[in-house]
Fold this protein.
Amino acid sequence: MLGPVILAASRSDKMRRLVSAAPVTKPVVDRFIPGETVDEIVPIIRDLTGKGLELTMDVVGEDITNPAQAEAARDAYLELIDRLKPLDLGTSAEMSVKLSMFGQALDGGHELALKNVRPVVEAAAEIGTTVTLDAEDHTTLDSMFAIHEELRKDVPGTGCVIQAYLFRTEADARRLADSGSRVRLVKGAYKEPAEVAYQQKHEIDKAYVRILRTLMEGEGYPMIGSHDPRLISIAQELARSAGRKLDEYEFQMLYGIRSDEHLRLAAEGHRMRVYTAYGTDWYGYFMRRLAEKPANLRFFVRSMVSKG
């Protein structure tokens, strides 16, 4: 399978330099990452919300090696919030954050990440919107969930992400559903060992459905992170069976993937949120998008061949 190979490449400095230097890379990256600065991303926000879509904004970047970089990541999100304020979009434009960007992997990283992310969560709440904590590899999750629980004491709308391919996730989902949390369910996009995660697609899909049923039947707010037509259809049926109204759950998809489906779901009255990343440190995010779906990799390779 190519997915694990691509994920390994996402951690290679040599591959980073090679891919970044290729002339074809930027126009392909632009499909998934529509800007590098806040100035470039604001028109995208206006355009998508004008079409009835909602957004979750991600300032890309994960390779934080010192506290100053973590503070810079915090400040980048605070700048975004400052620019969102006059747009008065409320929860139509929320934010997603990776705690690795806030210093989680550094010495004393748990406390540092909490210290840096708290002002972002509080500033978002002040303009009427929310923050979701993205899930990363399994070794970071206990820290992420602890920070999520701490933040919810003051800002209950703070969300988190769970990954269907991890064995632990069914128990995590039950706990989060009981607590009334906002939870985005995704399949998972990191290379995880067989000791902690399902390795086969059919196993992951079955786990996804089991976990989604738990979320739909619980007290929280489910966010369905998937482009899979079958899982989207199953999600709609589970929502109906659980008696949920259209504003009591939402779909989430990545910018640049199945854009027509974004508009179709929104036109049917569903809350449809587009995960929209921007920034200069795009390599890791881009490579995971290629690893997640063969069609994305084929798109990139065709572009390289046609432009070469």
User: Anything to note?
Assistant: Confidence is low (pLDDT under 50) at residues 303-308.
